[in-house]
Amino acid sequence: MPNPTAVCETTAGTFTVELLVDEMPVTASNFIDLAQTGFYDGIHFHRVIPKFMAQFGCPNARDLSGALGRPGTGGPPANSAYKILGTGKVVTRTEARGKGCIPDEHTAQISNAPGTLSMANSGPNSGGSQFFINVKDNARLDWFSPGQSKHPVFGRIIKGYDIVEAITEVPTGKAGKDMPNTPIMMKKITVVDAGPTGRDRSRSPRR
After folding, report:
1. What is the pLDDT of residue 194?
2. If exposure means fewest CB atoms within 10 Å of the residue's CB, which of 34, 127, 161, 181 is most exposed?
3. What is the pLDDT of residues 59-80, one digit of tens each?
4. Residues 122-170: pLDDT tens digits?
5. Structural Rg of the chain based on CA atoms
6. Within a 13 Å sphere around the CA of 14, how many CA atoms are in the beta-carbon half?
7. What gap in Å lies between CA 195 and CA 72, rounded to an integer?
8. Sign of CA dihedral 154, 155, 161, 166
């Protein structure tokens, strides 16, 4: 069965991602669950760096003023759960620093190449909802590299890479370091062909 895809509609344009459920089922299924429950809808990109990456997925970044908490520090609810696509196994997002975290999936050796989606984290087993999209070869961030950074890849852009590249190149700095001066919001993520364990095969209802 082909991997599911996600159509990501932002205020700066639309791009489509293949979610690597076949190789990274734990991490990809976490993204699918969050997308299908509307978790990502209305969140802004809070960190963009040219020739590096665009970071997204912090619920605090719904309001870039910091009223909900500092953008870049939030995540999904602690002790929330989701099912792994294909097996139906339930994974609980364990609590750490007030947010839910998933286990590191250090299995498939997929490099942080341009156009890949990779989990953001602050150390072992600290990934939750935040991820970044590489716009250069960031192999030094691979979990199987000799460095300290360990960021597993779980998706790749299959359409609209130019949109993401453009997002990384917008002016930043007025509201915070690396934060776009003109906010870029995720309007909706639609997951297609998520299979029988997904909540919905073709749409992403809002919470």
Report:
1. 67
2. 181
3. 999 999 999 999 999 999 999 9
4. 999 999 999 999 999 999 999 999 989 999 999 999 999 999 999 999 9
5. 16
6. 8
7. 31
8. negative
User: C-alpha distances in angstroms, 163 versus 33, 154, 188?
Assistant: 24, 19, 15
pLDDT of 193: 85
CA gap 140, 62 in Å, rounded: 30
Q: Which residue do the tokens 């691979």 mark?
A: 142
For the chain, the three-class secondary structure string (H helix, E strand, C coil) is CCCCEEEEEECCEEEEEEECCCCCHHHHHHHHHHHHCCCCCCCECCEEECCCEEEECCHHHHCCCCCCCCCCCCCCCCCCEEECCCCCCEEECEEECCEEECCCCCCCCCCCCCCEEEECCCCCCCCCCCEEEECCCCHHHCCCCCCCCCCCEEEEEEECHHHHHHHHCCCECCCCCCCECCCCEEEEEEEECCCCCCCCCCCCCCC
Q: pLDDT tens, 7-53?
A: 999 999 999 999 999 999 999 999 999 999 999 999 999 999 999 99
- CB–CB of 17/9 below 8 Å? no
